[in-house]
Amino acid sequence: MVGVPRSIDAISSLNIIQRLSKGILVCGVAEGDADPQAIQPLLVDLYREGRFPFDRLVTTYPLKQINQAIEDQHAGKCVKVVLTMP
Q1: Which residues are within 8 A (CB) of 83 and not within 5 positions of it... i.e. 6 or more apart?
Q2: Interatomic CA distance for residues 53 and 17, integer angstroms
């Protein structure tokens, strides 16, 4: 399973005992569970090679437009929101 549940009810509806008895593991992962010291140099190299255009994934908003940034992210208009401060 990959994704973000719409509510806590979606998580609690997982029958953990049933899954464990079948050997099914469900775990949460944050930030890809990557080692920053290993992944960051790799991503920089990929960017330099033109194979990871992270700059196209980032959309910046001034802090005063935080509500618009949240709306745009929920609507799928942007991937990664970065708020800027004066």
Answers
A1: 60, 61, 62, 63, 66, 69
A2: 42
What per-residue confidence (pLDDT) applies to 8? 62
Q: What is the mean pLDDT of each run of 10 residues along the chain (86 residues)?
A: 60 70 76 82 94 91 96 92 93
The sign of the CA dihedral 47, 51, 52, 57 is: positive
CA distances from 39 to 10, 11, 74 (A): 31, 29, 27
pTM: 0.52
Alpha-helix runs per DSSP H in the chain: 8-12, 16-21, 36-48, 66-74
- Are 79 and 60 contacting, i.e. CB atoms less than 8 angstroms apart? no
8 A C-beta contact, residue 84 and residue 62:
yes
Closest CA to 76 of 61, 57, 55: 57
Query: Which pair of tokens denotes residue 81?
Result: 């929101």
